[in-house]
Amino acid sequence: MSDTDSIEIASRRLSLALEALEAAATQRRSARRHDDALAAHIQALDTDRARLAGELDHATARSRGLEAASREVAQRIDQAIETVRRVLTADD
């Protein structure tokens, strides 16, 4: 084998190695972009989760307040009904 043949073989091997290195770098950049996008998505989901947890706490507190108001209204209605009954039976 001549020196020229050895140089050509080495040059081809170097070219193949550089192509493989470039492909690996491209793949790594793509994976990094995917990882960054995934991290951004996870952060957005975490923000949404925190917002929704706050909204749920607010809705739960409001529901409890409405339940208390409903019980109070029901008691007042019962008292009014009882008062009307007493008035009607007193007239008899």
What does this structure look like?
With 92 residues, the protein is mostly helical. The protein contains 1 helix and no strands.
Question: Tags for this entry?
Answer:
mainly alpha; 0% strand; rod-shaped
Rg is 39 Å
Order of helices and strands: H
* pLDDT averaged residue by residue: 94
Q: Provide the low-confidence segments as ranges.
A: none
In DSSP terms (H or I, runs of 4 or more residues), the helix count works out at 1
Largest sheet: none
The rounded distance between the terminal residues' Cα atoms is: 131 Å
Strand content: under 5%
Helix % is: over 70%
How would you classify the helix and strand content by structural class? mainly alpha
How would the global form be characterised? Answer: rod-shaped
The count of DSSP E runs of length 2 or more, i.e. the number of strands, is 0
Topology overview:
Elements lengths: L2 H89 L1
Structure described in brief:
With 92 residues, the protein is mostly helical. It has one helix spanning 3-91.
